[in-house]
UniProtKB/TrEMBL annotation, chains A, B:
Family, similarity comment: Belongs to the class-III pyridoxal-phosphate-dependent aminotransferase family.
Keyword Lyase: yes
Name this polypeptide is given: Uncharacterized protein
Keyword flag Lyase: yes
Amino acid sequence: MALEVFHKDKTLQMRRKLIGQSCRLFFSHDPVKIMRARGQYLYDENGMQYLDCISNVQHVGHCHPSITQAAAAQMDLLNTNTRFLHDNIVLYANRLAASLPKKLSVFYFVNSGSEANDLALRLARQYTQHQDVIVIDHAYHGHVTSLIDISPYKFRKLEGQKEWVHVAPLPDTYQGIYREDHPDPGQAYADTVKSLIEEAHKKGRKISSFFAESLPSVGGQIIFPAGYCKRVAEYVHEAGGVYVADEIQTGFGRVGSHFWAFQLQGDDFCPDIVTMGKPMGNGHPVACVATTEEIAGAFTANGVEYFNTFGGNPVSCAIGLAVLDVIEKEDLRGNAVRVGGHLKQLLLQLQTKHPLIGDVRGVGLFIGMELVKDRASRKPATEEAAHVVRRLKEERIVISTDGPWDSVIKFKPPMCFSIEDAERVSTCIDQILGELEDIHQNRTPDGVEV
Amino acid sequence: MALEVFHKDKTLQMRRKLIGQSCRLFFSHDPVKIMRARGQYLYDENGMQYLDCISNVQHVGHCHPSITQAAAAQMDLLNTNTRFLHDNIVLYANRLAASLPKKLSVFYFVNSGSEANDLALRLARQYTQHQDVIVIDHAYHGHVTSLIDISPYKFRKLEGQKEWVHVAPLPDTYQGIYREDHPDPGQAYADTVKSLIEEAHKKGRKISSFFAESLPSVGGQIIFPAGYCKRVAEYVHEAGGVYVADEIQTGFGRVGSHFWAFQLQGDDFCPDIVTMGKPMGNGHPVACVATTEEIAGAFTANGVEYFNTFGGNPVSCAIGLAVLDVIEKEDLRGNAVRVGGHLKQLLLQLQTKHPLIGDVRGVGLFIGMELVKDRASRKPATEEAAHVVRRLKEERIVISTDGPWDSVIKFKPPMCFSIEDAERVSTCIDQILGELEDIHQNRTPDGVEV
């Protein structure tokens, strides 16, 4: 057990004084102090264990010894910048290339998803010589200035929408404008992008790119309807723009069946740029942009160097390679299929019992459970979702909500999450929803929410 | 000796294919493949040693065992995000606070200098509710979109100057508009900023911030004239803006006498925001923004979370703390004073002998030696500077040039650089400049450059 330097109250007091308060804590009314972690388990200052359902960054499990060893060995040997030749960066790029369609063959290594998406924007603009960007409503693509501008989740609360940003409806077949009863929601949602392009063109604007998470996460763990991405890519290409697949949350096998979530849309869809980040270094700051020779060539042709001080250094690449090795050796994609599939089944069973569960959706270990006040209106059950999160914390399970109304309980655990973990969290949710329904019934004897 | 995976030619071939060519190599005609490093020494694939005069990132020396140990120990224990309470982040912020003036008491941890400067821009704009930025000519503040916009070094080669950006002359008393013979160049250069503010105001624009590296590095290892920063800060404050000191290259004791380079301007000058990065993690991606309670408070008051996935994680902070410990334990600031002072003396001695050396300037281990065609015209000796770099490489010394004409030989070595290293590089430069002068004399028998 690691030694605690300060009592929790003192840590919290220092944190409030020294760290910008825009950096928020989980469970801010009673934050958790975590001292150590292993696999899918977190341990607080009293040695209390928490089951971690949210740490998608610690992809192969917290503090995996193979990753620590790879990092320490390379740190002891060399950690310099990419202006010197080194094998690790080419080894790593080569491994990533093997996971992607052939045309995505050029790589830029950076330090964060935000740096990756910003570079993707620079690449798209340089290649197309167009400025405008289409994004999906409620999307979040990063914290730097340019990405706040293309993140409706942020800019709606801040400076508002820039004239060069166009917002397409979230292709959510549960709460969106086209739902599961639509004959072809993929086409219908893609047509909303087509309309946006036409409107932009009428104003004399030109589309550089369409940015989308391959599975919108902040948007509420959304699974795109079939055919959506391919049709959008066609429309965007016709407009002279490129398709940017943001795989920062969803890549590296989280969906189980495929290495990249965009591959769920079929072999006949391929983005022009893919950005990756969070799980890539299991917590180490490393991220990447993959693109085509043509787009990279246009960026080179401007004659200006792109230098990223830490990006692609030998240690980051050694860690990235070790993460890929563990994903393969421990068959974590297979685990995501098995455990994610089982968890989804358990939640679907709960749905038959608990009217609060409006929708259960997901692939692999990327799952959302949307709570509603009642199934007819699909009115988001925001408070109930917050209650579930608070109660699960009491049961020592760490989970969070997302979606436009914070009504989606979000599962994105480390990929070593087990069948037993899935059953534990499902059992607890069953009990908590039962408690909630009891409270509702007591309040409204006829069982109808008022 | 580490094993080479690919022969150097193969590494180079893979690199050209797989990595965006905008990411350039040192000595691109014959790049160096580095396999390992220790202290101030790099070793190539044949075990050949190079003296490193440029790796300011590997601040306490390449692969310092204390840093590796601190990183590995924390990686084995916990590496999660800042939404959980942890002691390392508050310990580290507290240590940084102790190095800064009292009013700079709130910290945001990020992954790179670019993320830090972008956040500084967001903070400045939120606090002042103004948009415009004043920057110094030839400055470089980072690679993300917003920072390309405020980096004349980049935007002049790309999309040009935005209407909200105002460029002040580089306060270079050797090549600039006011020189060493001016009675008060600090005041004169500060007045150029005052004029810019007045022009901006006439156009109805409002200044959010003045951004400046505390010692402009890409600008050519410039030392601000006395009084410059204080007067600029006064003018910027009068306009309702804030002063952002970019200490990404210059912080953490590089100047020896002070921990931060802005402190060279005296105790009566204090920036409103300080950004830090490169040397902070000795190669690990970590960076930071320090600011006042008022500015941080305004950013919090917008109600929007700032979440940086990797920023401020327990591993980054453990590494940061270990770097601070090594700076103190090994008296690296003292070493910068002693060795930097000695190196500067040696270069000044060379200046008495070699007419090519127009100027020698610097503090601590931040030194520039500017080459000129002749001392009267001060015409930059760009080709000669490139020749010195190439020849030093043959002598197995890695160094680079910078400045508006790439005519400044730039010293920013790891802080463990020794007296012997300084003498070795000085001796080599002496010889190479002698060779160059012989060539010049042979070409022009009267010894005058034509």
